[in-house]
Amino acid sequence: MEVVSLNKCFGGTQGVYKHHSTVCQCDMTFGLFLPPGEKKKPFPVLWFLSGLTCTHENAMTKAGAQQKAAELGMAIVFPDTSPRGKDVPDDDDNYLGQGAGFYVDATQKPWNKNFKMWSYIAHELQEEVISNFPVDQNSQGITGHSMGGHGALTLALTMPETYRSVSAFSPIANPTNSDWGQKQFAAYFGTNSKLPEQHDATLLLDRNGYPGEILIDLGSDDQFMDLLRPDAFVSVMENTGQKGTFNMREGYDHGYFFVTTFINDHIEHHFRSLQK
Amino acid sequence: MEVVSLNKCFGGTQGVYKHHSTVCQCDMTFGLFLPPGEKKKPFPVLWFLSGLTCTHENAMTKAGAQQKAAELGMAIVFPDTSPRGKDVPDDDDNYLGQGAGFYVDATQKPWNKNFKMWSYIAHELQEEVISNFPVDQNSQGITGHSMGGHGALTLALTMPETYRSVSAFSPIANPTNSDWGQKQFAAYFGTNSKLPEQHDATLLLDRNGYPGEILIDLGSDDQFMDLLRPDAFVSVMENTGQKGTFNMREGYDHGYFFVTTFINDHIEHHFRSLQK
Q1: Cβ contacts of residue A136 below 8 Å, gap of 6+?
Q2: Is the full-model pTM beyond 0.90?
Q3: Contact criterion met (CB < 8 Å) for B66 and A260
Q4: Nearest residue on chain A to B252, judged by CA atoms?
Q5: What is the per-residue pLDDT across B138-158, written as a single tens digit (0 to 9) for each?
Q6: B80, B105, B206, B222: which is the annotated catalytic residue?
Q7: Complex ipTM, two decimals?
């Protein structure tokens, strides 16, 4: 693993690291914030999954997450959103490929060689982070923004024993019923696959529920509301009696000025949930 | 004036605006944050001047200034660092031209047509902001980072009646004795000019002093320490008995992870100073 950069921030260290990913068959970059402290015991850790077009860098520099994480003593991982490189397929025009991994393991060519973001996040980077940094593998939460909110919800709803707390900002909540999802699932899984059902937060919540409280924030002026389908997710929360909070934030939109406004609430949610 | 974008942030509004600059002879873009509130009286306002290579956007998205500004009820202006456009001269290789306005009015060709950043900040944008937004022209502070710290200090030391509070992050503090300054001053003013002395914070402090307290933060691991020359400025502070605080922050470097760590201290400094 290569250290790309280390910057002191709120008394802790914001690092950027590069490593070779076996599952994605390319080099991958991620950010990791470690809070200040004597590391007498490993830190609880929050995974922040980013949205379409983002790299590891967007949330790391714009979300303003480090201040509260430093105060509470939490680590944060900022993974990239897809495999990268000149040999990795791409289709910018259709929100497919680089920057659009959708947190799934693709089965269809040309994507199936590199696009294994589910396995990368849930297993490979998980092991890399746990084995190299002072973070507590029994105290992990996951959040994300937009496509990353979709990733956070689907990973937590599938692996609640790993991701013991979950939240999301403006998540793609019902991708089997949205242009942000159907198109990507068709490309990555083919048109006759059952796999999309395993990567739809609304369907997963209906089937599995989640043992903890789910926190979701969404701006009432989100310009992508029709693509996110929060209504479907909220209906299932209500119908199944799922514990949690869905905040519609008046006047906020889809961007990072919205995320940074409520990031502290989310970090506190994870910190509280992981202490239980 | 054209509204480029408006985003709700911490209950206030982060706007980006474009207007034609008469002094710079090009369109200029700036950010302005307005805190929440009923605007019964105009808000105190802080100017944040950015560093080499930056636009209006860097501090606006990375400094994390909006939270504290919203809490205290302060507006913040994020100007660009130079004129821009295909007809505006540039010399990236030498840190001259676009992104490197140095907050001076150039007298030498080819720069003297557009590069009037002193007049732009101190007069033209000043009037634009005061006349279009609910900000109090009698309650203005100024801060900045690196080249912007130089701009903030030199503007405040020259016009203390306008800029009633001042601070800086990692400022270029003695540019007549540094490669970051001598080269630009030679290009913008010519080699036999007395103008550089009017744009050197250390010389201005020695000559004028400042009626308020000056706050400066600098990282002990700043990779550009030799170019910033903080030692010269601190010497004059000590020799002249200038009120203020110079914090050397152990282990921090020159970047925005440093700025965001201490931005709240600076905003509080300005808020307190402007209440006096």
Answers
A1: A41, A42, A43, A44, A45
A2: yes
A3: yes
A4: A8
A5: 999 999 999 999 999 999 999
A6: B222
A7: 0.95
